[in-house]
Amino acid sequence: MANFQNGINITGSTSFMNLSATTENTSSVGKLWFDNNSQSFKYTNFSAAFSLGGNMINGLENFAAAGTTTAGLAMGGENSTSPNSKTKTEEYNGTSWSAGGDMINSQCCNFGFGTQNAALAQCNEQGSSGCTEEYDGSSWSTGGAGINNHQLGQGAGTQNAGLAFGGYADFNNVRETEEYNGTSWSEGGNMINGRGCFGGTGTQNAALAAGGYYNFNNSTCTEEYNGTSWATGGNLIEGRKCGALLGIQDKALVAGGGQSNTITSTESYNGTSWSTSANLLCTTSFHAATGQNSTNGLVIGGTSCCTTQELEEGIIIQTF
After folding, report:
1. What is the pLDDT of residue 173?
2. How many other C-beta atoms can be found within 10 angstroms of the C-beta atom of residue 8?
3. Structure pTM?
């Protein structure tokens, strides 16, 4: 239930009513609006409120993440004081982190997806052959080798229906997309704009890419994948590189990243356009995010954060 606040404001072709939650959900404030074009009520994108979670064992940057707020996973990555961090796995239980099984290969600038007990990670450091590893909740095993190098690229999906897209290879932008069937990779449709250091999320048949570094500029570009080809989505409000993306194709959140400096801003996506959401508690870039059900997620680690070990739990609340 919700009670009306500030009355009804009618301007131009669009009318809207501000809503605030009752005691059933006092943390949410949203906006319900009437679209005269479609003659129907619509609600704005969900918003996010962030709180600090438990510190990681190793402060990390350039790493991959998977899972949920109560069953999260961090894989590989860099830590200048911990040279073995590239093989490390950490598991999150909603409160604290514990060590998981070591990876087979050192991984950095990698991507990952899936769940805590069924994750996939691909190593794509410069010159790497795109080694794939699969996690069963305790140990890693070798999966099918990738076709292309996707250094600082992104992935989406599940261990048996995965997606790899974008990034850099030999310092050139990569447009290639690859699909994984649990055993081997095959070519999918090329991205419209090849780029690296961007956010990616979703499923094999409904993936989302946003932001990144393209033609020496911080990109506002959004692209959506339907299992066959990429299409242009709504542009981000702020161009950002190395931002982290979580959620699903029509309910996603991009958090942090860099412009000329590191930013705290986040934006939410409704499948058509982006809107401003709550700021992160600390600035971060080269971090990771995960959240597969679009109602909650984790923003983890990175550089220029309060400390590189801290994790932010993003509680995403639908406004109506």
Report:
1. 87
2. 10
3. 0.82
Strands 89-92 and 97-99: antiparallel
What CA–CA distance (Å, rounded) separates 8 from 16?
A: 7
How far out from the chain centre does Cα 262 lie?
Answer: 17
Burial 203-222 (b: 16+ CB within 10 A, else e): bbebbbbbbbbbeeebbbbb
CA dihedral sign of residues 78, 185, 72, 211 = positive
Residue type at 218? N
pLDDT digits (tens, 9 = 90+) for 17-29: 444 333 333 333 4
Structural domains of the chain, with CATH: 2-43 (no CATH), 47-317 (2.120.10.80)
For residues 177 and 202, is the Cβ–Cβ distance under 8 A?
Answer: no
For residue 95, give every residue at least 6 positions away whose Cβ sits within 8 Å of its Cβ, in sequence order, or none. Answer: 53, 54
